[in-house]
């Protein structure tokens, strides 16, 4: 009988905790961006609500994971601040006839959060960012949306981080 452990078992607990908190921050950021988009709520109001009432709480039987609040805030504020840069990049990577304002609001929030990170979080490998947001898409959708997210983000990553994709 083999006693092999998964590679995740070999990671230090602190690294796992930080990674899980970042993943939870990304998920919360997508939800906050969605709320701002659909509910037309302000940045300050949305940040305050999420940081006070959702993160690390249980609400109506749904448990919200503890998240890295600073990372959550960075993403939501970053998308808000750079949306005029982000949306044209997403538009340019979507199929013709499907501009960012025509796609599903959740999908739009996912693509905006991920694009912000691809543009402004160069310390995180593009493949990690893409994988995280594809996983978020899978949590919300059962259809082709995860593949769409992967394709759009891969295209944006190849445009903005060419050095990560060139063979050495």
Automatic annotation (TrEMBL):
Gene Ontology terms: biological process: DNA-templated transcription termination; transcription antitermination
Protein name: Transcription antitermination protein NusB
Keywords of the record: RNA-binding, Transcription, Transcription antitermination, Transcription regulation
Gene source species: Maritalea myrionectae
SUPFAM superfamilies: NusB-like
Record Pfam families: NusB
GO cellular component terms attached to this protein's record: cytosol
Keyword Zinc set for record: no
Function description: Involved in transcription antitermination. Required for transcription of ribosomal RNA (rRNA) genes. Binds specifically to the boxA antiterminator sequence of the ribosomal RNA (rrn) operons.
Gene name as annotated: nusB
Sequence similarity: Belongs to the NusB family.
Keyword Repeat: no
Domain called NusB/RsmB/TIM44: residue spans: 25-157
GO molecular function: RNA binding
InterPro entries assigned to the protein according to its UniProt record, in alphabetical order: NusB-like_sf, NusB_fam, NusB_RsmB_TIM44
